[in-house]
Amino acid sequence: MTGALALAAEVRSGARSARQVVEEALATVARGNEELNAFLTVLSDEARAQADAVDAVVAAGRDPGPLAGVPVALKDNLCTRGAPTTCGSKILEGWRPPYDATVVQSLRAAGAIALGKTNMDEFAMGSSTENSAFGPTRNPRHTGKVPGGSSGGSAAAVAAGFAPLGLGSDTGGSIRQPAALCGVVGMKPTYGRVSRYGLVAFASSLDQIGPFAANVEDAALLYDVLAGHDPLDSTSLPSVPEPTMASLHDGVEGVRIGLCRDLIDGCASDVAARVHEAAEALAGAGAKVEEISVPEFAYGLSAYYLIAPAEASSNLARYDGVRYGLRVDGDDAEAMNTATRTAGFGAEVKRRVMLGTYALSAGYYDAYYAQAQRVRTLVMRAFDRAYESVDVLLGATAPTTAFDLGAKVDDPMAMYMNDVCTIPSNLSGHPAVSVPFGAGNDGLPVGVQVLAPALGEAIMFRVAQVVESGAPHGTGS
Amino acid sequence: MSTDWEMVIGLEVHCELQTATKLFCGCRNAFGDEPNVNICPVCLGLPGSLPVLNEQAVEFAMRIGAALHCEIRPSEFARKNYFYPDQAKDYQISQYDLPLNTGGWLELPDGFRVGVTRAHMEEDTGKLTHVGGSGRINAALHALVDYNRSGVPLVEIVSEPDIRTVGQARAYADELRGILVASGASDGRMEEGSMRVDANVSVRPAGTDAFGTRCEIKNLNSLRSLGRAIEYEAARQIAVLESGGVIEQQTRHWDESAGRTESMRSKEEANDYRYFPEPDLVPLAPDAAWQGRVGAALGPMPAERRAGLATALGGAPSDAETDQIRAVVDLGLDGLVTAAAEAGAPPALALARAANEVAAQGDAGLRLDAGSFTALLAMESGGRLSATQSKTVLGALIERGGGDPAAVATEMGFEALGADTLSAVLDDVIAAHPDEWARFVGGDDKLMGMFTGEVMKATKGKANGKEVAAELRRRRG
Fold first, then answer.
1. Active-site entry in A89, A127, A132, A150
2. Is the residue at A40 inside a domain?
3. pLDDT tens-digit map of B80-89
């Protein structure tokens, strides 16, 4: 499949029509989606109309933008006007937002085509996409395996060649972990770099939208389109983002890489081996690699599983049956709320809402939520210390390759452990990217993670580009 | 022997700010529109929407803080979580442990100072209307929600429990209303709900220091309700205590028609609001320059304006004048009085006309221009119009939105007689009543009325009664 950059160039030059690109993509989806369940909704008519509009711009001699005619798979927690946005939950079934998320507008302005809405763990809570109310997504590399999660649908859509690009959201690793498990590139930007307006909130202080792509260059291309200030998001950073494409191929000569023991040691040996090989590839390209330890990362998971559920318990309160989505009647408002939420939410969402409610309750707040925030500060300071001596950190994305469907559904703790390497960057608000690097003993893809300090996207992508170039060919796909 | 009891009262006043738009979105902030017309994804709490703080609301809140002598501090928004159908997100964005304004005071007209604990910002909820059944909350068939009010900016002003009498409570609410209006932050209209008062009431044996258990009374829609409810509640608590009972901490609802308070919920039933910092907003820390601009732009408060008027009246106003001063300042008519006095009108006359005739015209009176008012007062004090005529012309001027009082008087046939005409009429009247004139000259003052009446009859009421009397006395010698 042609990459996004090349595809956009062809459409912009008139060599291929956007309509033709979209028809091919729709045909591919029609052939493969039933098995994978990557898309919950395919926006066929809208995509065709959008493609025709791009072609009209080309015909008029104007520039349709850097993503001209490129189909993009949107995670189903991104609001799309008039089109279903379910968050993988029954409670939002049938709801059609009256507005587009800012990123959806940015994509359209860049000439991209919203191809459809992808499956996800309900309200982004999960690491396998098995918590969707609309059935699991299967991993295109091995259909008996999970694609990871929560953005498993977008990761699978890109891995399966349904679309060259995808959008996900990453609260504790929900872009990077499925990218690793599906053998694609997935990146979480600095918190505040991409607008959250129109992203249905899971944990507001951790959520960030980011790109999926088949390669680092396409991911950088998409990131550059998404990044920027949005007055509709108060946590959006006011500074003008540095374009990452400009320096993408500048190499890593002299770049200081911290090979982070704490993001490797707990992982399966085959995964750890690939990370070390990636470090060697970087060293071979002129980077200065040193081993580094950030022991505070060990506390990240515990802090995350208090902060994220606490915020979620509040963010998900609005699904009460009053204004939109599912309503199950009851004798009074309270009974209706209870009946609606009981029927509309799945087990994992209920578990986290209860956890979060408890963590914020009078008498427990200091011991749980406040304590978790202190740990969060500790993790941020630990990052700061690490970045005094290195430019980026290198580690694994996920502790293992893709696991069997159903293997961890009854063991929440085992499922939560999938996020152990990705969570620190969410707590700190820093950017991180997962790049495919070879395969595990089972032949399934391994992701290597490059972590950078706040607003370090450019150097992060530069390093990721070199990791990708150094990756063994012909594996993991 | 029965104990003497003392009331301890603290007031919580919610006031709606008269900003053009809502606190976190661009929807119109207006009272009385059709239901659900001023709404958008943000104030409906739709999934994916995010709040953006209204700068004008912050400015108004700071004005209130400055007018109440508060310290304006770096502050933070928090989420107050509770389920209620009028609440779009099922949490309210409010300020909790870090309010914008703290530690001020309000001085009552008698000089008594009530401490102000805090004045913080928050959003209003929607408005529920229960329909069907008996219309009472528990028996209604449906509840309709109007979200026009959802997200309207509020400032909640919390007093210290410094108030000891119903009179002080009413004076506090009244004075605070005047301050809110004078600061331009709110229209202070209790009848439209833009100022809402809750009272915390407890009683204790006079002369003791410990606070009794308090009850919070809600639904006080007027100063009259406030006074009645506190009276009732204090009497209720005293009766309970004197019969050997204990007061249970409760929230109580004031039933205006029944004239009593009823329990809404006890402390045990109270919500655990699970406050935590609002992750969708950044901390609010107005810098010194902004605070300075707000302070400088703040006009004089009612107390200062009352003092200014009293000075203009010679410094020792009578009780009646004190009441008039309060009235014109409350209504914002003091500027009219001051302007007229500065232009040479007798201050007492200006005050009386403003407090009575102008005030009676409501909002139209506020539009009367000082020039017309001053010219009219000059005609009256110069004897060219009688008091009755002056009031009639004033009414016409207000109705017409201004104009030349001399022209209006002429139009109404009110032009007073010239001195020559009056003299000629008097000649005729005296000539026609020689016997009566002789008795009058001889000291029979009762005939003053007869002569005045004859002059009035001859002039069809155009003569100025005072001038006629003066001329009669002059001629008598």
1. A150
2. yes
3. 999 999 999 9
